[in-house]
Design goal:
Layout lengths: L25 H23 L2 H8 L3 H8 L2 H21 L8 H18 L1 H12 L9 H23 L9 H17 L1 H7 L7 H19 L2
Helix pairs in contact: 1-2, 1-4, 1-6, 3-4, 4-7, 5-7, 5-8, 5-10, 7-8
C-alpha cells in the first residue's frame, strides 16, 4: 500500500507517553496506529473513541488514518482482527500436538488464563463488541478464519484423549472452547465488581494463582474418562 505524503506534516519533538508513527515505513505506521487505537477502543468503545485522539497520540493525521483504514469503523475492525490474530499466533506456538492429551489440555487452559489476565484490553474489546451485538466481527472473514485452527487444535487433542481412554466421549470441541473461555474471561471482565463486593480478596497474586489452578482442574476433571 502506498503512503500518502501530507503537506501538513511537520517535524516535532517526541512527547512523553506518545507513540511516534510518522515514518516512511507504512507497516510501522499502521502498527503504531493499531497499538494506540486498541487502547482507545478498549477504554471507550466504538462510539466513545475519537480518531482525533488516536491521531494526536500517534503524531499522524486523521487523513492518514482514513487512508490506511478507510473509516473509524474500518480501524475498529482492524483492531479486532489484530487482537484476535495476536492471541491465535501465540496459541499456535504451544505445540499441543507434542504433548500427552491431559498435559496439552492443562497447557491450553493455563495459556488462556494467562493471556486474558495479562491482556485486559483484549477482554474489553470483546465486551464492547458484544455490546455492538457482534456487528463488526460479523463483517470480518479474517476473525472467523482465525478461530478455525483453535477449534481444530482442541478437536485433535480431545480425540487423541478419547482414543487413549483419557477423556470421556460425547463432548464437542466448540463447547470445550466456550467453557475454557468463560472460566478465564470472567476473572478480567468482572474483576472490579467482584473484587469490590468481596473486598478485593479474589484479586491478589496468591488468589489468582489459586484461581488459575482451580480452573485448570475444573476443565480437566470435567473431561476425564
Amino acid at each position: 500500500m502506498n503512503q500518502l505524503v501530507h503537506s501538513d506534516q511537520k517535524a516535532a519533538p517526541k512527547a512523553a507517553g506518545k507513540v511516534t508513527t510518522r515514518t516512511n515505513d507504512p507497516v510501522r505506521t499502521m502498527a503504531g496506529i493499531l497499538e494506540v487505537a486498541t487502547k482507545e477502543f478498549a477504554e471507550k468503545g466504538l462510539s466513545g473513541a475519537r480518531i482525533d485522539a488516536i491521531a494526536d497520540a500517534t503524531r499522524t493525521s486523521k487523513r492518514m488514518i482514513y487512508y490506511y483504514f478507510g473509516s473509524k469503523e474500518g480501524l475498529y475492525v482492524a483492531v479486532l482482527e489484530d487482537s484476535y490474530r495476536r492471541m491465535r499466533d501465540i496459541e499456535s506456538e504451544l505445540h499441543l500436538e507434542n504433548l500427552a492429551p491431559e498435559a496439552a489440555l492443562r497447557r491450553l487452559v493455563e495459556f488462556t488464563f494467562d493471556h486474558h489476565w495479562s491482556h485486559p484490553d483484549f477482554i474489553r474489546l470483546v465486551m464492547n463488541e458484544n455490546i455492538e451485538r457482534g456487528a463488526y466481527i460479523a463483517q470480518s472473514q479474517s476473525i472467523q478464519q482465525l478461530n478455525v485452527p483453535a477449534i481444530a487444535a482442541i478437536r485433535e487433542l480431545y480425540e487423541r484423549g478419547v482414543a487413549q481412554g483419557v477423556f470421556r466421549k460425547g463432548l464437542d470441541p466448540t463447547d470445550i472452547h466456550a467453557s475454557i473461555s468463560a472460566l478465564t474471561f470472567f476473572n478480567v471482565s468482572n474483576q472490579h465488581t467482584f473484587g469490590l463486593i468481596f473486598k478485593d480478596a479474589v484479586n491478589g497474586q496468591g488468589a489468582m494463582a489459586a484461581r488459575r489452578a482451580n480452573i485448570t482442574d475444573m476443565v480437566v476433571r470435567f473431561m476425564l474418562a
